[in-house]
Amino acid sequence: MDKAFWLGFAAYLLPTFPLGYVWHLKLFRGSYERLDIFRDEVIIPFGILSMVIQGLVFSWCYPRLFTTAHDDWWKGALGFGLVFGGLAFSFAVLPVAAKYRMTSVDDFVRIETLFTVLQFGIVAPLIALAHRQPL
Where exactly are the transmembrane stretches of this chain (predicted)? Predict the structure, then answer.
């Protein structure tokens, strides 16, 4: 594993954990409480482990699927955001809305879609920059 791999991993993990924590447990806590889908005490280590696994996989995949050309980093960022943001939406939003009891499926889909767009809007450019070839 090279430096770009670990930078890409950090580019995913470092913004994702605080964003997820603040979004789900602080900023929109009341919204999630009204949805009645969270346990009283969430298991934060499971969330961190999930993010670590995602960061490792995403950083490994990035140079194999997207451009690392120095001047085209934004193309890689756009591709990464669309592909992996879309996958995240399909893994974390749609099946949860389909399977779990909640007071409003529409509200859940809306708030989690906004989170996913924000998350990948932040991490996609950072991962692309981490994997960008030097001049």
Answer: 42-62, 74-96, 108-130
